[in-house]
Each structure stands twice: as structure tokens, then as C-alpha cells.
Structure prediction request, 233 residues.
Amino acid sequence: MLLSEIFDQLTHGELSQLSIGGAANGSIEQKDYPIVISHINMALTELYKRFPIKIREIQIQEYDSIGIYYLDSKYSTITGTAATKYLIDSVAFPFQDDVLKITTVYDELGVELPFNNINETTSINTRDYNSFEVSNPDSTKALTVEYRANHVIIDPTELDATTVDVVLPRSLLEALLNYVAFRAYAANPPIDGQDRSGNYLQKFEASIARISLLDLVNDSEKFNIKLDNNGWP
Prediction:
């Protein structure tokens, strides 16, 4: 959906009682874009955390001397600055530091490896949200790491809301609007003594519960960054 559609919904709905909502002028003014878009960015991140909206894969070249691997662009073969670069990305699909959570690891044949399994001595174990440990690294092998990815951050500068595409299942639009309103009202004094921020947070959680119950969000986006240019099949 377009960002302008989200703006319209907020103007005539959730933010209509706040000056940043732009109800008096019929639309959100450009001077208020930084505030409103910061709320939208946070709402999108919250939804991407709650649901597997974007799934990504990145391939990693193992090295005998490296036991812990980080999904961090400084290890990118394209843009990295580290001495040893093991994240195998490409100019077309550079790694973008968008990791929310590592979910699965595969070997070069596509076999899923034991992951965070205390009963397996060869298990690959996460050290942090974007790092994992390999017990016996082997420079002749490569791994494919699947992870939950964050959304593309919307930049409010020199922005045309009618051309910015927001990647979000339409089933989550109501939840996004409620979360934006929760943050926006939290930053302002209560109106007529009412805690609208808390009310919108409750609406957000209720919307999330309905979506989860109806199982409306699936893995909607997935691609694999291949090792074709590095001698791997």
C-alpha cells in the first residue's frame, strides 16, 4: 500500500484530533512528516517483530579460524570493512543490517542443521539476535542463514507520500494505525482527561490477537542470495 493511504487514514481517523494529523487542512502537512513517519516506522517494526512478514536468507562462508559469525554489513563481501568478509551478498542484493531474529541455518546442500539444541553437540547456537556460533568451522563449507527481517525504513526527507510503497499485509493496517495513534497520543497531554494512548494500545493488542487467531499473516516475502559467483552450486 502507498504511504499516502496510511496518511489519509490517520488524518480522517486516529490522528484527527491532533494537529499533526492535518484534519484542518485535509492532509498531513510536510512539516509534520518527520513526527508521523517516526511513529509509522516504529509501528512497522513492531508488526514485523510480531509476524513473519519478511523472511530473508544470506549465505556465509565458513573459516577454520572463525567460530562466531555476525550478520553485520561490515562482514559483507560487497560493502564490508572487516579484514575477513564472510557474508556473501551481491551488488543487486546487498546485506542491509535488517536482522530481527535468526530462525534457521542450512548447510550447502540445503539440509537444516541442529539449531539452539542443547542435546546436539554439533548444534549451531545463537549468541545474540544477529550472531551464532559454529562448533567446528570448516573453510570448505558454507551456510545459509534464514532470518526475520525488518522493514525498509521510511525516510521523511524530500518525500512524496504518493510514491512510497509500504510493504505490509492489508490485514495489518488497522493494527498499524492503532499503534501510531498510541505513540502519537502518548507524546501529547490527555484530551478531556482521557487516556487515548492507553486506549489505542489496547485496540492494537486486540487487533493483533484477532489477526493471530485468524492466521492471516504468512511468510510473504523470501529470496535466497546465491553463491553462484563463489564456486558454490
